[in-house]
Amino acid sequence: MAIRNFEYTAGSLALNFVDTVAQRQTSPYDLINSEKDFIKWTRNADPVFYNVRFPFPIDVGAVKELREAIYKALCAVITETPPKDSDIELINKCAVNADLRPSLKNGIVYFDSGDTFNAILSMIAADAINCLAENAALKLRECPDCQMIFRDNSRPQNRIWCSSSSGCGNRAKVRRHRAKKGK
Ligand SMILES: [Zn+2]
């Protein structure tokens, strides 16, 4: 089976970050396995990250640690159970680092920081906090097909399926259609 690449369709920075593990509940597949993978994901994750000055030290273990804490906290709030204190503490700890600072060079804005890596994790953690806050959490959904956690930004707030290229909603439509025809 073809493994998909990075997608940025979950509705926010932190949710897209969590989505770097595909098929979480059936056959999890981690798309971030090296510094190179993280850089690749980061470049397209937010316009601010595009002109970040690479390279800088990247701790892939810390990347995964934050990501899984966010995932577990999201799962908790979706099922209306309290997230684990240790997960929230890790997210809060990551969020306190400074954001990236802009600087202008030959007309191009570069983003830098004393500690660029932790600044990027900090921005992801801050977005996770926005997603997990009581009112925002009501918009979180888990796709019944591919298990992507996404934010339902639609006006009627009635989305069931994710909008990834895997076409979950479409497949469900086909299944319903076939069931109707009795095939
Ligand atoms: Zn899906």
Explain this structure.
The protein is mostly helical and 183 residues long. Helices cover 45% and strands 11% of the residues. The chain has one domain (13-181): Jann2411-like fold (Orthogonal Bundle), CATH 1.10.3300. The protein has seven helices and six strands, in the order H-E-E-H-H-H-E-E-H-H-E-E-H. The protein has a two-stranded antiparallel ribbon with strand order 1-2. It has a two-stranded antiparallel sheet with strand order 3-4. Helix 3 runs parallel beside helix 5 and helix 4 packs across helix 5. The structure holds zinc ion.
Which helices and strands, and how do they pair?
Blueprint: H1 13-18, E1 21-22, E2 29-30, H2 35-45, H3 60-78, H4 85-95, E3 101-105, E4 108-112, H5 116-132, H6 134-137, E5 140-142, E6 149-151, H7 168-181
Antiparallel strand pairs: 1-2, 3-4, 5-6
Quick synopsis:
It contains seven helices and six strands; from the N terminus they run αββαααββααββα. The protein is mainly alpha-helical and 183 residues long.
Task: Name the descriptors.
183 residues, mainly alpha, Jann2411-like fold, two-stranded antiparallel ribbon, 7 helices, 6 strands, globular, binds zinc ion
